Amino acid sequence: MKSASMLGFGxxxxxxxxAGVDIVKAAQHKHFGLQVFGVCMELAKDIPAGxxxxxxxxxxxxxxxxxxxxxxxxxHSPISLVDYNKMAKDAGLDITSSHVRTPQAAYTRDxxxxxxxxxxxxxxxxxxxxITYLVxxxxxxxxxxxxxxxxxxxxxxxxxIVKDAGMLFAFHNEVNVAxxxxxxxxxxxxxxxxRYEEGAQQIFDILLNETNPGLVxxxxxxxxxxxxxxxPVYYLQQYPSRFRLMHVKDVEALGASGMINHENIFxxxxxxxxxxxxxxxxxxxxxxxFERIEESARYLQEADFVx
Length: 307
Description:
This protein is of the alpha/beta class. Helix content is 38%, strand content 16%. The chain is built from 11 helices and 13 strands. The chain has helices at residues 9-18, 40-43, 47-57, 81-90, 112-127, 145-164, 203-210, 222-227, 232-238, 262-271, 289-302; strands spanning 33-35, 61-64, 67-68, 71-72, 79-80, 94-100, 133-136, 168-172, 180-181, 201-202, 216-221, 243-248, 276-279. The strands form 3 sheets. The chain has an 8-stranded parallel β-barrel with strand order 1-2-6-7-8-11-12-13, surrounded by 4 helices. The chain has a 3-stranded antiparallel beta sheet with strand order 3-4-5.
């Protein structure tokens, strides 16, 4: 790690000492969002009631997941984006971002037109909501440097489509962006030793360097970065204008694992002039997701480094 994005044992002990202590709610409410995937199964049981509960817990904005042809379908029957937006508004929540995935698992010269047609339709649907970000949720399959360069090319064109529709195109990093590829390669690789053949480059780095900053921004997932051996603070420092929003998450509820130094990440994020973030909890099958995201909301309200 190039900077302290992970907590040391002393800080972990300090966190453990605070566990179970009742904390008085902050006098001034802080505004932050939630990626709905984290509560998808519990939310699907009664969406209007669940959205109202999210507002009561302390969330103000939402990032959608489960987009499919103008609808949201996330462990529930399809609901149009317009109707979902109305339910959110009725609950006092603003939808500001949406995660989508192109149906093509890999990009080729032959299917590039289909990919861009997807973005045209998707942008038209989401423009009705007045959201800020339209996010590509994962990188397509890449086996070579040339594959990643094609993805960057598509992202640039998709970014123009999304920009013309009044939104920002963003890419969200998962763990697999740390895979390395080589020119003319036949497969992507990840080495625990950090040893790679000459010319190997990280997919994440190629995308950052090959995409147009005026058309493509990034959503930083700090936990995903750390799990694949990258330091989120380093990336925030190296590319201060590229990471416009981020996912804030932990192995457990925020702050519970003692694994991630959220303070360092937040301080650099704010230093870069950015403010938009969403809590995500990927353990969506726990049956206790509302409890976990409530713990996370409490953590953010009490953290003095969160504005």
